[in-house]
Amino acid sequence: MAPGSPVDMLISPQIPAEALAAKRIELGLDAPAYVQYLSWFKHLLQGDLGYSMITYEPVMNMILTRMGPTLLLMGVSLIIGVAIAVPLGILSARKQYSKLDYAAVTGSFLGISVPNFFLGLGLIYVFSIWLKLLPSSGMTTLGSEGGFGDILLHLIMPVIVLTANVAGRNIRCVRSSMLEILEQDYLRTARAKGQKETLVINRHAVRNALIPIITVLGMEIPILFGGAVVIEQIFSWPGIGQLTMSAIMSRDYSTIMGLNLTAAVIVIVANLLTDITYALVDPRIKYSK
Amino acid sequence: MNLFERYFTGRKEPQLDTDMIWPEGDESSLKLFTRRFKKHKLAVAGLVVIIILTLCAIFAPLIAPYDPTTVTDSFGAAPSMDHLMGTDQVGRDQLSRLIYSARVSLSVGIGSILIAVAIGTILGLISGYFGGWIDSLIMRITDMFMAFPYIMLILVVASIVGPGLMNMIIILGVLGWPGVARLVRGNVLTLKEAEYVKASVVLGYSTPRILFLHILPNTVAPILIYATSGIAGAILDEAALSFLGLGVQPPTPSWGNMLASAQSLTVLTSQPWLWIPPGVMIILSVLSINFVGDALRDALDPKNTK
Questions:
Q1: Helix, strand or coil for residue B253?
Q2: Considering CB atoms only, which of A118, A129, A245 is closest to B279?
Q3: In degrees rounded to 5, what are phi and psi of residue B93?
Q4: Does A10 have pLDDT greater than 80?
């Protein structure tokens, strides 16, 4: 089993060894790992994720209250990231080797190469410390009611960081997918029959180019989750990522298990949705019964 | 003659199918490869940066003005003639730490990818070639690995096995193989139907011989491309983990754990020489590797006719 347990974190000269041993038994940490796992699994089947070993809160509650902020952060970043990547990728492909194309591709490389925690720190340095424009931590101002505008202000910097990642990864995907389509014979046919260029691009090229992009977007979800862990840590965003870090640091096993299970479920649901959208968008794809 | 040899040695006999792909007549493949690669100016620049970084990493003790873990005379001092990039809060020379960090990043990047590629290639070859229940078993295992968000899985494993350079390499390597396995499997599925593989089967070659001498060389190009971007990814992951305090631990310097000091407000506001250089180094190395990877993708693409 892992080195360190929640009980080891309590060790201090003031607490006698007997008390620690009692605590260990109370939390069920004295049992062998497989017994602990089976007991966890039995409760899981009854829809019970157990209690945190640190705060004694039900893990389910902890995850549910933190899910909202994370989904908000991930959702907004994903939408803006795609809204940047798709048009830019298409334009970039249509004007291959133009200045815009070079700028977009270089920007996309930067987006995937800049570590998101460094970008986050840089933004805090510029916008919070230097310009004093944006709040650097939390989701709402402490002591205030919160409200839409306040959350929006707090959302800007973390979203910029995650958006840079999403857009960076996807611009080149959209571009290369579009470039491939632009060489297809049916585009020449469409032009040959005198269709307007905008129609050729929008109706024939873009629709086909976007099909592979759906798969890429499905894979975005787990990556965004990982990004959220780091970003929430920097911006003290009260979401799943922050909960994960604190649970890992205090060896709160029941919470870690619950969090990983939730993450896996979200990833699998995202994959399922990807497959379904795939079939909806592309009539050529059929799943056999 | 396999694809890999063709890239790097040159063609001996004209072949109908490849002549359509390589219309340049007598240009050798290595020349062709270099010519295509050189078209990417940024990739050439990236390659130069990587070579410089590698040299810095290898000869770190000769270049670095101080020992990276020795406490010198000044604490948190701004850049000066004595310390070109200043010193950190503990009083260690920042420039020396930056140089030594290249060792950490490059060894994590290359080491973990070697492990990932080794596991992934073997499992991918087996999975694609044998099919059936072996294939299902291996693919379900990769599905399981891929169902968890990568960083979360790494964080949990890192907290269990403990921090450290060796552990980082092993964790990133052991968790990084599913992508390679899927890539190789996909390639094997197509190559399996190729005539020369069927011929090898008819000739009665042993299965390992077919797998490693006939199929593997033809999937080297995509693996190479994947590995390049994998190195960049591993460097970023190591930096993130060290930044969160679960990766390489001080006093061993790593760009990630040097950046971690910027989580304190005084460092962030008044000692920018402590956190901007390591960040710039990460960007520089990852960007260079990504540029090279992209150029490799173009230069090794058989569909490329330019």
A1: coil
A2: A118
A3: -70, 125
A4: no
User: Would you put residue A143 in left (φ > 0), alpha (ψ -120 to 50) or beta?
Assistant: left
- Among B107, B77, B109, which Cα is nearest to B95's? B77
Please tell me the least confidently modeled range out of A17-26, A86-95, A273-282, B9-18.
Answer: B9-18
- Cis ω for the linkage preceding B251 (within 30 of 0): yes
Cβ separation of B283 and A118 shorter than 8 Å? yes
pLDDT for B114: 94
pLDDT digits (tens, 9 = 90+) for A40-73: 777 777 767 777 777 777 888 888 888 888 989 9
pLDDT band at A220 (very low <50, low <70, confident <90, very high): confident
For residues B112 and B236, give the distance between their C-alpha atoms in angstroms, rounded to a whole number: 12
pTM: 0.84
Kindly compute the dihedral angle of the four CA atoms of residues B55, B56, B59, B65, in this order, to the nearest 10 degrees.
160
Alpha carbon of A280: minimum distance to chain B alpha carbons (Å): 23
Mean pLDDT confidence for B133-160:
86
What domains lie within chain A, and their CATH numbers?
59-281 (1.10.3720.10)
CATH code for residues B35-69+90-299:
1.10.3720.10
In chain B, the residue whose alpha carbon lies closest to the alpha carbon of A128 is B269
A166 and A77 Cβ atoms separated by less than 8 Å: yes
- According to DSSP, the residues that pair with A51 across neighbouring strands are A58
In this prediction the ipTM stands at 0.81
pLDDT of residue A28: 66
Sequence-ordered strand ranges (E) for B135-193:
none
**What confidence tens digit (pLDDT) does each residue in B66-111 have?**
787 777 777 767 777 777 777 777 778 888 888 888 988 899 999 9
Domain ranges of chain B: 35-69+90-299
Residues 6+ apart with CB under 8 A from A242: A66, A232, A233, A236
Mark out chain A residues that contact chain B at CB-CB < 8 A: 2-3, 106, 109-110, 112-118, 121-122, 124-125, 129, 222-223, 225-227, 229-230, 233-234, 244-245, 248-249, 251, 256, 259-260, 263-264, 267-268
- How far apart CA A147 and CA A153 sit, in angstroms, is 10
Distance from CA of A165 to the nearest CA of B (A): 12
Q: Which helix (H) or strand (E) holds A78?
A: helix A59-94
